[in-house]
């Protein structure tokens, strides 16, 4: 415990820490996986709608880009499950946690791009407004704030730095404290 009565960390081995972090990561991935899979499923149905044939070429390009982004996000967010299955029992959990964490972060970036692209397409088709780009930019800014900026601000503001090493004891020089010895 510190002077303030707060713990600075957990008393756990690297393996215990990896197990805990893996459990936390999988819980986070479950939330993101569900969202990306539902979004991707809806995207796959668009091409089979009658209105798709009447879309201008630029909207079809946006649609294809959106589907590819959605497929990529799905792959990145499901990747940690496959990784765990293939390396389970191989004594590489700390490394697997780092790689799965990277896949999850990448998947969230791809999900952000997918949602922005899908929103762009939907608003273009629904409104034909020149304000669509501004609306999409505002929503992307909101996602960036909620998903990255606030968490990074909290991380920076509230992370407790490691304890500073204790200063070496002062040697008594036999004189007074004014440096005259």
Strand content of the residues, in percent? under 5%
Question: What sort of overall outline do the alpha carbons produce when their principal axes are compared?
Answer: elongated
Give, in order, the helices and strands.
HHHH
Radius of gyration, rounded? 25 Å
Residue stretches low in confidence (pLDDT < 50, at least 5 long) are none
Descriptive overview:
- By secondary structure, the chain is mainly alpha-helical.
- It contains 4 helices and no strands.
- α1 packs antiparallel against α2 (57-87) and α1 (14-46) runs parallel beside α3.
What's this entry about, in short?
This protein has 181 residues and is mainly α.
List the helices and strands and how they pair.
Blueprint lengths: L13 H33 L10 H31 L5 H35 L4 H27 L23
Helix pairs in contact: 1-2, 1-3, 2-3, 3-4
List keywords for this structure.
mainly alpha, 4 helices, single chain, 181 residues
